[in-house]
Amino acid sequence: MINVRTDLVLEAREIYKENHKNEADIDGIEVIEESEKDIRVTTVKVKNEEGAQKIGKPKGNYITIDIPDFTAYDGETMDRVSEVLAEVLGRLIEINVDKSILIVGLGNWQVTPDALGPKVTEKIMVTRHLQSVMPDAIDDSVRPVCSIAPGVLGITGIETVEIIRGVVEKIKPDLVICIDALAARRIERVNTTIQIGDTGISPGAGVGNNRKQISEENLGVKVIAIGVPTVVDAVTIANDTIDLVVDSLISNSSSGNDFYKMLKSLDKNEKEKLIKEVISSKSNIDMIVTPKDVDLVINSLSKIIANGINMAVQPNMDMEEINKFMG
């Protein structure tokens, strides 16, 4: 499989199926589609190493939530998505009330498309310290939660996983939840998809900056990753635009259809490789693109994810109580 820039398992599965049209199903991959509060939720289970090798993603469970249009402008819809996220996280979090949780906001807070993780940590209901600071005011049903935003290697000079491992060794949480900005293959997935997985995460993988994986294997504690694709590769945009132009020419032109159909039949991977080579020959800049309203969208997405996590890790509290606490 070509190294397409995507962190989304749904897209990796789609790409594999596009390249292997003769396969009705992918061995080792199970897909379950459902609807929660009119929001589509898709679970992809990578059940064995064969399935993992085919789509290039580790064995485990990946749950995708499709965010409705204009959610960033609609507080009621934002709350519905948060509730669905909380319900989905609840399936993966099996932890007693006395167990502690570490929330990690990955990414660079100085770069808006990469600031999702740090912005989420600002809105997390942290409670780990309260049992010692104000024990009389804290109910026994409140889970101890703490959070950090460790920054990126270019700012700290330290591998992110090393910072997290040091914190984990010191405070010994029972679960780590990481939040990060991802990269998508399809333009329509940008800022419209939340992916939750139980296999850990490699910061920067989607944009080619592979760092050491944050996983149970490296930390010694279960890791759940939550991400939203906030960027797409410029090569992808160019490739998709060419496809749209060719489709339009085929449907509207009375001549030259054979030539246009020949262009359409070109192997998608070869076409993307050619576009990348042409762009690279004109400029050494590797371009990643994000929507112009990214500031607003990141703020909304961080609130959705933080509220979802807060509800999932504090199941004995409702949204009103959490908002009052955060007040």
TrEMBL record:
A GO term for molecular function: metalloendopeptidase activity
SUPFAM superfamilies: HybD-like
Keyword Signal: no
Catalyzed reactions: Endopeptidase action with P4 Glu or Asp, P1 preferably Glu > Asp, P1' hydrophobic and P2' Ala
Keywords: Hydrolase, Protease, Zymogen
Stated family: Belongs to the peptidase A25 family.
Job description of the protein: Initiates the rapid degradation of small, acid-soluble proteins during spore germination.
Database matches in NCBIfam families: GPR
Name listed for the protein in its UniProt record: Germination protease
Lineage per the UniProt record: Bacteria, Bacillati, Bacillota, Clostridia, Eubacteriales
